[in-house]
Amino acid sequence: MTTALVFLARHGRYVLVVGLVAGLLLPELAQRLRPYLPQMIVFLLFITAFRIGLRTAVAGVMQGFGVFKVAIFLQLILPLVAMGAMILLGVSGTTFGIAILLMLAAPSVTATPNITILLGYDPEPAFRLFVVGTAILPLTIVPIFWLSPDLGNLLGALLAAVRLLAAIWCAVIAAFILRRLTAPVLTAQQTKSVDGFTSLVLAVVVIGLMSAVAPALSANPYLVLGWVCVAVIANMGSQIIAYIVMLKLGWSTLAVPFSVVAGNRNFALFLIALPAATTDPLLIFLGCYQLPMYLTALVMSPVYNSRLKYKFKPSSQD
Q1: In a domain, 137, yes or no
Q2: C-alpha 8 chain-centroid distance
Q3: Would you say 23 and 207 are in contact if contact means Cβ atoms under 8 Å apart?
Q4: Domain assignment of residue 32, yes or no
Q5: Quick count: other Cβ atoms within 10 Å of Cβ 277?
Q6: Other CB atoms within 10 A of residue 250 CB
Q7: Is 222's pLDDT higher than 80?
């Protein structure tokens, strides 16, 4: 079993591609998995927290307020700037405008630390930004929903944010306790095994997340193609821009995990607060959004390992 998990860890990027393909080719399986997505995502967070451990997580939080500043910029300043631009362009009330605004206002998806691992970088900064970003979500969404009536019910979004925060902390605390009791220090072999198991869980999760894409692809392939283009540009474009900015600021050790977070957001949280008329096209966007998300480890690896990072000199991380 350990050998198989280590093999999955070594080829984790391609395991995610298999999950994407399975989600498209096996729509019935995707529909069966869809109701269990919340539980699978929480379990994925549990595995990530177990791998990192309490000591590493606390040490990261104690390093400074850099992560807090990044979270505020990504989830509050950036979406407010985007909102202003979309109002000037007259697209703020369109499905496209709402989708982009929700993506920018959302915290990181739970999978970003795992994707960071597959890229070959330390997952702890991505995990830290995920936790901080989710913790401040009930505060950052207030001005965004208040200034944009197109986003729907503020109370619904707040309640969803609080429920998400409670689920996250329950999973994280349970994982830290289990790690403390069973494996206070993970060996290299154990770490690889956990990474391989994580890749397997991620592949199963993405099958369920693709449940809305296959039916839409059969009904209107051009609509799906359009949303795929939007998702790829929004996701990977955000990553590339964030990566360049992070390197320019000298945050070289944090550039990759923070950039992965910048492009991969948990905007599905907000769907329960939207009018029913906008839900269906946003669900298609959510499915299409999984393509660049789960291809990040494969497609973005050449970018993150390019000579671009050598053009900037490192400086303070705070």
Answers
A1: yes
A2: 21
A3: yes
A4: no
A5: 8
A6: 15
A7: yes
pLDDT digits (tens, 9 = 90+) for 101-117: 989 998 888 778 888 98
CATH number assigned to the domain comprising residue 81:
1.20.1530.20
What sign has the CA pseudo-torsion 185, 189, 191, 197? negative
Catalogue the long-range contacts made by 254-257 (C-beta closer than 8 Å, 24 or more residues apart): 254/66, 254/125, 254/317, 255/304, 255/309, 256/116, 256/119, 256/121, 256/304, 257/112, 257/113, 257/116, 257/121, 257/122, 257/123, 257/124, 257/125, 257/126, 257/129
CA distance 115 to 297: 6
Q: What Rg do the C-alpha atoms of the chain give, in angstroms?
A: 19
Q: Which of 295, 290, 232 is nearest to 23 (CA)?
A: 290
Q: What total of structural domains would you count in the chain?
A: 1
Gap between the Cα atoms of 236 and 245, Å rounded: 14
Give the span between the Cα atoms of 262 and 157, in whole angstroms: 21
DSSP, collapsed to helix, strand or coil, labels residue 265 as: strand
Tell me if 205 sits within 8 A of 41, measured CB to CB: yes
Put simply, whether the predicted model's pTM sits higher than 0.85 gets the answer no
Please name every residue paired with 108 in a beta bridge, in sequence order, or none if there are none.
265
User: pLDDT tens digit string along 255-308?
Assistant: 999 999 999 998 877 765 566 666 667 778 888 898 898 889 889 998 898 755
* Greatest mean pLDDT range, 96-110, 182-196, 232-246: 232-246
In a domain, 210, yes or no: yes
User: What range does the domain containing 121 cover?
Assistant: 58-161+202-311
Burial of 255 (0-12, 13-18, 19+ CB in 10 A): buried
